[in-house]
């Protein structure tokens, strides 16, 4: 059993209420990051919005008009084009204005050092984050939406944690319950910078106010739930609910007949190496494997934005003929790359975050090599029945895992994830769980 509550493994058809018996319910979804913005941060919210109408919930999305971002994917908007979803956008209100009003301008993904320095500067000036400059416009537009629609509940997802403050103010102003959805933790996030004790104390007060006002908090892992319960004694076990990340079965349907090239052993990583994540140790192990097996038909794919220092590692370890940097592609193309692969690899070097890419890997039903410290990510991967796990920086262990997987590939005996395990992470299934929590919090059941 995975780390989220066992009682959710019920028939979700029981959660679907016929419209003839109950009127449609409306939820205001506060999400700064939303398509056409790309990257993993939009996936969870998009899929909730996509499937909530099937549970008789009409999402009203409050978001921004992206002036500039690191990646855009127009195909994501197409997923909800024919759904009962309304999208309301404020004008760009942050640092992207300096781009002369250009819409959907691509920002260069910063190096790890520049990202750290930028975060240090912005989190010194802005609390809880730089998107606080969006709050006024978001509250104004949110109030207009509520004035014209019978909103039963507000659902806010973060980061940015400004989303929570927008929802909190709207909830208090209009006497509507709201749910706070944590994609990452807030005050206890080791990647947040607090310039002074006052900065941390201020964020602590903000988070306390949010949690005291929220009808419920949702987190992605049991570890995140335990952190909240430990820090905030006023929270009870039932106040924090776990809905993990997942995969959308519909995304995989067009590629159900796609098979890997039988003449190549293909290992793929999908996504961005955020913060201090790096392909360095994997590439070192891969270089050693090639040195020992120079005739092995191996291909390593990196699908997504690749920082320049990481790209240089490929040349450093003389893997130009083995490693391919695909670059950022649409979500559908990324899924196709997963299906064309024999093994999927992921690296995470902390126990705090829950990378959404692992759940996409589950959806691909492929064997996995997971480089992660002891914790929920490693445990969940092992529960799949198709993962080899190593410490993130253990080159020897990664090398042995590549050798083992290659050996299994040659005799066509690579493992396959347990089907029952995989299905519990289906986005439609998970949205049914959210629909029930929304109804309970809004006192509609």
Short description:
With 445 residues, the protein is an alpha/beta fold.
Compile the SSE list and pairings.
Layout: E1 25-30, H1 43-51, E2 57-64, E3 68-69, H2 74-78, E4 86-90, E5 105-106, H3 112-125, H4 135-148, E6 151-158, H5 162-174, E7 178-182, H6 197-213, E8 216-219, H7 222-231, E9 240-242, H8 249-252, E10 265-270, H9 280-292, E11 298-303, H10 308-316, E12 323-327, H11 331-339, E13 343-347, H12 356-364, E14 368-371, H13 376-383, E15 387-390, H14 395-410, H15 419-423, H16 427-441
Parallel strand pairs: 1-2, 1-6, 2-4, 3-5, 6-7, 7-8, 8-9, 10-11, 10-13, 11-12, 13-14, 14-15
Give an overview in words.
The chain has 445 residues and is of the alpha/beta class. The chain folds into two domains: 256 residues, Rossmann fold (3-Layer(aba) Sandwich), CATH 3.40.50.2000; 174 residues, Rossmann fold (3-Layer(aba) Sandwich). Helix content is 38%, strand content 16%. The protein has 16 helices and 15 strands. It has a seven-stranded parallel sheet, with helices on both faces. A six-stranded parallel sheet has the order 12-11-10-13-14-15, sandwiched between helices. Strands 3-5 form a two-stranded parallel ribbon. Helix 10 links the parallel strand 11 and strand 12. The longest helix has 17 residues. The N terminus is likely disordered.
């Amino acid at each position: 059993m995975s780390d989220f509550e066992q009682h959710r493994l019920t028939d979700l058809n029981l959660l679907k209420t016929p419209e003839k018996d109950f009127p449609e319910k409306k939820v205001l979804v506060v999400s700064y990051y939303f398509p056409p913005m790309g990257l993993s941060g939009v996936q969870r919210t998009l899929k909730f919005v996509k499937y909530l109408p099937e549970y008789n919930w009409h999402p009203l999305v409050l978001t921004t008009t992206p002036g500039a971002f690191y990646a855009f994917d127009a195909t994501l908007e197409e997923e909800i084009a024919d759904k009962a979803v309304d999208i309301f956008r404020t004008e760009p209100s942050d640092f992207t204005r300096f781009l002369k009003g250009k819409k959907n301008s691509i920002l260069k993904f910063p190096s790890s050092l520049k990202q750290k320095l930028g975060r240090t500067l912005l989190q010194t000036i802005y609390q809880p984050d730089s998107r606080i400059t969006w709050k006024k416009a978001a509250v104004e537009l949110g109030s207009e939406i509520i004035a014209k629609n019978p909103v039963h509940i507000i659902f806010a997802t973060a980061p940015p944690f400004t989303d929570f403050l927008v929802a909190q103010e709207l909830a208090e102003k209009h006497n509507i319950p709201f749910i706070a959805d944590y994609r990452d933790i807030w005050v206890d996030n080791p990647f947040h910078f607090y310039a002074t004790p006052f900065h941390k104390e201020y964020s602590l007060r903000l988070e306390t106010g949010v949690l005291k006002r929220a009808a419920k908090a949702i987190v992605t892992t049991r570890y995140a739930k335990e952190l909240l319960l430990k820090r905030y004694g006023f929270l009870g076990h039932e106040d924090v609910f776990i809905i993990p990340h997942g995969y959308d079965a519909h995304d995989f349907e067009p590629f159900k007949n796609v098979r890997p090239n039988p003449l190549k052993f293909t290992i793929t990583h999908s996504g961005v190496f955020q913060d201090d994540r790096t392909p360095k140790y994997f590439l070192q192990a891969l270089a050693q494997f090639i040195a020992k097996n120079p005739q092995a038909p191996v291909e390593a794919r990196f699908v997504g934005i690749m920082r320049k220092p990481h790209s240089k590692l490929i040349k450093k370890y003389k893997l130009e003929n083995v490693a391919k940097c695909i670059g950022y592609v649409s979500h559908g193309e990324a899924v196709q790359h997963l299906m064309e692969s024999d093994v999927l690899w992921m690296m995470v070097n902390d126990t705090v975050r829950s990378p959404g890419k692992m759940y996409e890997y589950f959806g691909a039903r492929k064997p996995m090599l997971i480089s992660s410290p002891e914790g929920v990510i490693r445990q969940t991967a092992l529960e799949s029945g198709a993962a080899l796990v190593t410490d993130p920086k253990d080159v020897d262990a990664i090398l042995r895992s590549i050798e083992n997987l290659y050996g299994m590939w040659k005799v066509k005996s690579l493992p396959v994830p347990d089907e029952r395990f995989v299905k519990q992470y289906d986005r439609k299934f998970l949205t049914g769980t959210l629909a029930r929590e929304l109804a309970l919090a809004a006192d509609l059941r």
